[in-house]
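ingest -> fold -> write
write: protein_1
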Amino acid sequence: MSSRDQGNYPVDALTMYEEKSFWSRDFGPYRPEPSLQEPIQVDVAIVGGGFLGLNTAREFKRDNPNARVAVLEAAVIGYGASGRNAGFSMTLFGLEPQVTKLRWGKQRTLDACRYMIKAVNYTRRLIEDHQLDSDYSHPGFLRLAYSNPQVKTLEGAYKVYQDLDVANELGMRWVEREELRGEFNSPLFSAGLSEAHAGLLHPCKHVRELKRLATEAGAEVYEQTPVQMIARQGNQVVLTTPGGSVRTHKLVLATNAYTHLLEGLEGTRSLQFPVWTSVIVTERLSEEQWASIGWANRQGLEDVRQLIHYFRPTADGRILIGGRDVHAPRGSQDSMDYDFTPAVWLELEGHLRRMFPSLRDVKVAYRWAGAVSVNIDMAPEIGFLGDERIIYSTGCLGHGVSLTHLNGRLIADLLNGKETELTNFWIVNRSAIRLPGRLLPFLSIKAVRALLRTVDHVQERSMPGLVSGE
């Protein structure tokens, strides 16, 4: 941090930047598993110790108790997106359903909705069946519009769900301004789309509970074990780490936004691009402060801006708000050190106070950022890299909590060589758009970001204090 411009933020206000998220601080002291210290031979190696990697290990070990499975995490469990995300277990797939339908058609959009419904159910059952200490609640989800153009966008999303005949299954209903103003003391809310089928969890507690389940199933977890090189040798794949090599028959790349950093495999740089999103968390609110804003149901919130805001309460009575803008530095193809986003943090603080004026004096206690995996055609992807020995998963677009859990079961089926309902989902081995090199993806993300900011500016220009970039 000393080498960074800290802007208006004192060092003590940025403690969580150094520790990566509020969630990791809230978790308390953590003892990582030992790093790999000798060469090993395994049946399946998994690079990446997040939701996807750990649940894949657990599911595969349950299917194959005698197989040897190793999870290799470069830092510690929960260091990446699985420990920094907002903790929304939701059915949103990719971007708006209108975008998915336009790009992929009605049937694939319906298939995606069905898959995400299964994903939320799967994640909830996993937590409840194993009594995971994940601070899980299932309060539902509310999407919000601030302006007339945004109301039309939200109406379009609702119509897609109705046309797909899944709105009732999702527990969706339209919420008019009057009802919103009765539930929330906010001058901004013009309309809402409520969904019953969504949950909230503490991501850092949860990912470390997944580690427990994986190790109890018999998987080996090695933390602080970066993979320096991956190479195919005969009918095996060899991974080089500082403490020893790993020889494996099958390999899963559960690295998502970090996938481009892997060395030795052709094609990993074109699979996805890391894009940073920012988050802040307030101090604990008093009972009087909560009463002043309403929000009695404590559900997750997300607005319908192109560059969205997302909001949620924490289990200990804070408010989390994230989003507002994204950034994709050109050097992000070589480094992941872009967690310092003071301009966006300030914008998030400003929006929180515009949304709930009664909280104008509430202090922000934690600020952080983290990378999500984005691809050009804006939909998740699972596939084989070169041959069926190597499986990858990318492109969660920031909506990966429930998705990665069910993807773990899907990838276990692929490792088993089984054709199942899950492996027939169209994201598996789909023909994705690839942008070669480093500059073109960077420029594409910049162009899309500029377009989204412009759309938000136009849709909100009649609303004082809500112009994008203010």
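write: protein_2
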Amino acid sequence: MFGFGEKPFLGIDLGSTSVKVALVKKSKRGYDLLNFGMVSLPPDSIVDGMVENPEAVVDGIKKLIQAEKLAGYRQCVFTISGQSVIIKKITVPLMSEDDLAESIQQEAEQYIPFDIEEVNVDFQVVKAEGELPKSGEKPPEGDDRQMDVLLVAAKKDIIRDQVALLQQAGLKPTVADLDVFALENSFELSMGLDVDDTFALVNIGATTTNINIVEQGITAFTRDMPAGGANITEAIQKGLSVPYVDADNIKLGHLPEGVKKNEVAILVRQGVSSLCKEISGSLDNFHKTSDGRVRRLYICGGGALMEGMESMMAKELGLECKLINPFKNLKINTKMFDPEYLETYGPMAVIAIGLATRMVDDK
């Protein structure tokens, strides 16, 4: 993390319906919230993680930076997700991080379905049988100890396009992160990580849902699913034969004349059920490869804001379900921020807050 007195980075979360920006600063008291804001994007500006209307996105970022008076902060942390990103937990012989860095490209070729020249590769050691050797040291001959490594690969062209977009908006992209890791960082800041617990963090966007299963305090399983709040909107749209925009408003509780609440409730449950089937499939895949069992879900994202979402998902999945409040442990100046606003929109701020805590040399 950044040291006291250093200028923090902006966390920029480009969602399919809005841009969120967050700014936090580490202090002797913990973390101070300096800023959080968001602006809506025109429909279909970002689809399935791909920017389809760069002009609208750049304009949205500029307006947000101006509205929040953040022109003095140019360095930013951004996130990538979706089909262009591969996250895989692999097991390799115990070795130093320097040796792993030299061999990771070759290791990655076995697991990455892209041309290795087309991706940027990074890694994080998450578990090791004993202390990692120091740089230049080799384990004794016959030593069969191993370590678990989280291998990450992201397509270079996606990162390049994202960097160019942010530069057009007047920012200086400094760190690239993944949604699932920003999600975990934000959760740890607000709730802490219980090493004896196994739980799932679920970020429900409009068309993509990120899931990060944390076991014994470390990431054990991740997936970006092509499903989200749009599943619910589409169920309402089809059931009531209304335009998509009207269905989205109905989902949020704005019922037009002649539409009955119980009729909408049935359609909402259908959409939630469709989303939960995707989540359940991910939980099943994790349970096949681990002795741990997911005990509860923590949800966030725009899709989590719908009234009753926690209870509906809990019923569908048979698991306890809670909202993530990323502002819970931040020091907040109530003269600058409306606590009610932060509580209401906290679930939408999770990724941006997680990004804002990053530094260049973080793993």
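write: annotation protein_2
Residues 261-289 form the longest helix (29 residues).
Confidence is low (pLDDT under 50) at residues 1-5.
pipeline exit 0
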